[in-house]
Amino acid sequence: MEEIDRMDMPGFLRVRAWGAKREQAKKTPRRRYIDEVWPGVKP
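Below the sequence we write its predicted structure tokens.
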């Protein structure tokens, strides 16, 4: 319990927000080449 009392709450929330932003950035669509999307298709 003593650790919780001494915890830097704004710092903790800042780290959690940073992690959430990184996870959200991974989910954004990005440009890909057709070879990556359908590797088995031949012209």
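Residues 2-37 form one domain.
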